[in-house]
Amino acid sequence: MNGEIYLEGSVGMAFWPDEPHFTPTMVREQLAGKGDVTVYLNSGGGIAADGLAIYHLLKDHPGAVAIVVTGVAVSAASLVAMAGDTITMREGTMLMIHDPAVGWTEGRGTEDDHRAIADYLQRQSEGYAEIYADRAGISADEARDIMRAETWFTPNEAIAAGFADALFEEAPKAAAAFPYRVYEKAPQQLLSGSRAGGPTKKAVLAMMRGGAAPTPKEAPMPKTNAAEMADDEDEILATESGEDETDATMIDDEEDDQTEAEDEGDEEDDDEAGADSVAILDLVAMHGGSVATARQFIADRTPLAAVVAHYREKGPSVTKHKPGGSTARITRDERDTRRAGMTEALAAQIGRRAPTDDRARPFMAMSLVELAAMSSGHRGPMRTAYDREQVFMAMHTTSDFPLALQNALNKELEGRYREATPTYRRIARQKSFRDFRPHPQVRPGDFPTLQPVGEGGEIKYGTIGEKAETVALAPYGIALSISRQTLINDDIGAIADMIADQGRAVARFEDSTFYAMLLSGSGSDGPTLLETSRKVFNTTDGTKAGTAAAITVASLSVGRAAMMKQKTLGGHDLGILPSILLVGPDKLTEAQQVVAPIQAAQAGNVNPFAGTLEVIGTAKITGNAWYLFADPADLPNFVYGYLEGATAPRTRMEEPFGMQGMRLSLEHDFGVGAIDFRGGYKNAGA
After folding, report:
1. Mind listing the pLDDT tens digit for each residue in 503-551?
2. What is the pTM (predicted TM-score) of this model?
3. Which H/E stretch holds residue 237?
4. Which residues are within 8 A (CB) of 324 and not within 5 positions of it... i.e. 6 or more apart?
5. Which residue, 29, 151, 229, 378, has most beta carbons within 10 Å?
6. What CATH number should be reported for the domain holding residue 50?
7. Are residues 179 and 198 in contact, defined by beta-carbon separation less than 8 angstroms?
8. Judging by DSSP bridges, how do beta strands 662-674 and 474-482 pair with one another?
9. Residue 562 is part of a domain; what is its CATH number?
10. pLDDT, tens digit, 9 for 90 and up, residues 192-215
11. Separation between Cα atoms, residue 161 and residue 164, nearest integer Å
């Protein structure tokens, strides 16, 4: 069934409560069951990561995708537009491409903080540049130049640059509402029509990166029985009848030079105190206490950890509601800030480490059930195991806790996964895959050699071999569960152990998958290549020894000579040298002895391989076989890769099932393959 999809407003989230927006989930739901689709796009940008996710959703859609820019396609929305099989722009519309940016760094803004943000932005920008370059038929470096310049295109300019296909002579829609002032070169017509108010430039930049906006500062508490309530979009006051009603006042973030230049130390102290105050208000309300009690804690500068300890010592009775008593509750809609703090607090507890984000500090002393209760606004008792279980069951409705827990699990899962060092990564080259289709792999040795330029200045054309191998990604996954017992026991240590085990397990899975490919085929000589119709290791191509031999200087010399004699498709010498000696457990000691330095008394005893070969051992190789490989950066025999932008395994929370805890899936996209024979050599060993 064909259909139409309208993507109007900001990408990922609304910058004003009453404005439209669209998320990856919303797009996925609209695509379900459709064949060819026409996507009408009008967006001033938004969260960069969500734009990339929507791009992949459209790119992976089985039907044809036609993009029609009806107003503007700016920033993250221009990335979405690149997913179209055809891109049409209405007359008078605009498309803008630029580098992702942030408004501030995490932490105190130290040298390391800024360097980490710069590295993050570089990786993100390079990934986006590949998408723009692929669409326009230009190099990634050329795409980066366009991004750095923050380039605004009219329809004709976009068509000429390769970012659009056609101009549709129909009046455009009004540009989607957006705080266009965040862009350095925004056209005047967008600035003049931009809606007033909304978040500050720093907050918008942070949200476009996917982070949280700065915590609004809280005004001093007036010395009166009740304060005036400010009608602020970022604050919600929920008050029921009671004997102790209290209001609070919030002031907006002000976007002016004076605010931007405030003293850093004072700003940090205010932010920390404000975050603790909000956490104390929520914690007291969760235990059925009054706002007056919370205000007294805050006035006395009671640490949050002491408030937590206070209620734990008081026991179950403090959670009972007093008949006719105060049930006033103040909350601030700081969901992004609180979610980020909870995420880092959970990640730090799971990783058994100190938090790296100051926003986590108010939540570090809280247990799983307390975090879940605060996130969902739970007001009931938590005296029994059943009460705690009900908190976890209720959190799947309106609570941010599942997302915070999922993000924390993913953060620690990636960390544990990165700690693993499977050996296959040292003998294969990493690639990035845009989708799950087979990707042709052009090998370094396939490029034509330079030719002399004639007197007339004519440059001759070379050719690249047409027998390129292909490699494809495969999706993998497994269902996991956090048991009911773990939740009721509040056992975060069990969750930490599960994540550590899974991170290492994924790395082992990759290693097994790679070596299953390398050792496939008869004689464990590897997969069959399209170029030769022979296995990677064979005597015809000089990649396998005709006679099995132990690892000696003589047998290594034969292998090195065979590799040096390899030629490109065009018949040119590669002159490649081995740098890796790969062996199994049975030959590891022998390999290390052979390549060890020898203090020779005469020239005949000099070891020519000392310091030139790195010995790598793997239990995946059984028996006496040994292999020589060139540095994969020079000439790889094998490649491995991940889906673009997803280079680590990830978890995804599922809906709760019955009373048996929480279910989640562990997912990973990974691919391996052989692309050449010239960079390797095998000896069956003896």
Report:
1. 889 999 999 999 999 999 999 999 999 889 999 999 999 999 999 999 9
2. 0.49
3. strand 235-238
4. 242, 243
5. 378
6. 3.90.226.10
7. yes
8. antiparallel
9. 3.90.1690
10. 655 545 555 555 555 554 444 434
11. 8
